[in-house]
Fold this protein.
Amino acid sequence: MTATIDSAARLADLIRQADSVVALTGAGISVPSGIPDFRSPGTGLWANVDPMEVAHIDAFRRDPERFWRFYGDRFQTLEHKRPNRAHEVLAELERAELIDAVITQNIDQLHARAGSRQLIEVHGTIAHSSCPSCSARYELAEVRGRALEAADRVPRCECGQPLKPDVVLFGEYLPMLALARAERLAEGADLMLCIGSSLEVYPVAQLPAMTLAAGGRIAILTQGSTPFDARASVRCSGDIVDELEAVLAALAQY
């Protein structure tokens, strides 16, 4: 616990000293909400399924029924998940004008539900799906209703084509506008908080390097190792909720 308090105090100092602070979050921040990460043995999302078979753009085009069996179950699971204190702390820091924005790799909507407003979802969101043919967009509730009404459980557009969730699948590029905004924030940040991310998936993993290259600092709060550990000004490896609560408490002492 002493290590957590000491690192939290150092991180609070850096946040207070910085003119611009940006958070970058990955799957680890949502684990306390009951959402598995991707690669943990036995529990990770890809532990029992080949992502290239169910989460690749070619899989969607080739077999939308199999694709939607996987994603329909996943969306149903995510619907009932709620933000945890880690999400809430970041929203509180934004309201206190201590962080500028949250860049997230997650599609689960938990940052938005927690109250984050300056939110860049670089891997998309489950909030809606679109038609690859005519570009019509449908909100999640409508998508779910169309799936339930379909004999094969594939939600379809009015034009008859299968809908695609507005998330980035394997084989797809990240949304250009979201990535460009994330890069601008990374380059302008005095401090980037890297939370719950392995920092191994590109192009998002280049964002901490952009902050460092521009003269900023990074702090890493995650339980697994990352390629940036040696370059972090603060490295926290405890429970993410505990770490962020400790940072919030340290900031309250100013």
